[in-house]
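pasting for the record
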Amino acid sequence: MPKPYGVIKDYYPSAAFAGQMGTAIGAVGGADGLRNLAGSKIMATRPMNFQQLFDNFVAYIRTPANGLTWDGSGRGGTGSPMLDNDLTTGECAMFAAAFQILCWAPAPYGLGLPKTDFEFVSYTGNHRKGFVSNHPRAGVVRLLPNVAGQDLYLWANHKVVRYQGRYWDVMYNTSYANKEEMALYHVMPDEVVLNTEDVPVEHRGTYSMVEPLRGGQGLWFKETRPRVYEGPSTVMPF
């Protein structure tokens, strides 16, 4: 049976909505259960506009007591499972989609902004092969860097919400004038795999060249095991 935000994610004004929500609220234990949902707790902070909702959403997901975990390869892309307390771990899509739902969900479940003002955006870098971003050594919502010894994360893609001409990133608590600002380096199309017996063990891996955002010499990153990297290096192999 759908829960409240599972109903809301497909929202459009209709006579059936109130009945559907009544059934969904009953499924979570009535008014008390509704108040306990993550989505309701975020809206209980009473954001009055988009910026306040953005700030309050970021504060909620970054509060350790709320038990959320950003998993770079997790699930939960629709967002409603997080808002309904069904998922506490997911990829960036879960968090971005959850935020977007709260933006346009009708009051009191969200801000009630026009749904058509929002776009869910997946960025894969200039060459559609991924990109490298800055990522705090201490982690963000329990997700640590995936480049050894560096404050960096190499992404296949990253999800954000476009609103009023800017790209809003709830995971990194920032916004961008254009998608390219997410990247420190862009992964280039070709990769080199060195895994044969004649390659020293310490040099084995999958090498990807990256293009610095502001120009300059290309650099190399090495994938030593799935989604774990070393680099950047000016030489290859390393």
